[in-house]
Design brief:
Strand content: 15-25%
CATH topology: Aminopeptidase
Structural class: alpha+beta
Strand order of the largest sheet: 1-2-3-4-5
Helix content: 25-40%
Number of strands: 7
Oligomer: single chain
Shape: globular
């Protein structure tokens, strides 16, 4: 559950470095600091630029003045009226409190507001906690879509 000291806000350029660090820290902790993951994406250090387009958005979870989480959405051409849930990451300090579910519910509402009817996501088998959350949130596993960008990802919902 989101705590009173937490707020979800649009990502700003001032928060880009903190989000990139959060993503890389999580991926490294699970052995995914390898080519073919977002860890090495050129745009990871400037996410606010990528998400500053219609149909895209990235939100940071702030606790006081610290970025403790993030989640985004962007168009996904693999399915009709579909966006991709992207980069759901939480700091270790807030994991295990149900916040991942709150973040997913938040992004699902933003997706509906943007006219999307479906949400796609991809993850990796090493991220068992994420897979658990996605399944409990009602996401169904599907075969790998032909349009997958990150070659290392091996689980698709």
């Amino acid at each position: 559950m989101l705590e009173e000291t937490m707020q979800i806000k649009h990502l700003t350029a001032e928060q880009d470095a903190a989000v990139a660090e959060l993503v890389r820290t999580n991926l490294k902790a699970h052995g995914l600091d390898i080519p073919g993951t977002v860890y090495f994406d050129d745009g990871l250090d400037h996410l606010s630029s990528f998400y500053d387009h219609p149909g895209r958005a990235y939100y940071v979870l702030m606790q006081d003045e610290t970025v403790v989480g993030g989640i985004g959405l962007a168009e996904f051409g693999g399915f009709e009226a579909c966006c991709e849930l992207q980069k759901l990451y939480l700091s270790d300090a807030v994991k295990g409190r149900g916040i991942g579910y709150d973040m997913i519910a938040y992004i699902e509402n933003r997706a509906r507001e943007n006219g999307y009817h479906r949400i796609y996501l991809e993850t990796h088998n090493n991220l068992q906690a994420a897979i658990h959350i996605y399944k409990n949130a009602g996401y169904k596993e599907i075969p790998r879509p032909a349009s997958v960008v990150h070659s290392t990802m091996d689980r698709f919902f």
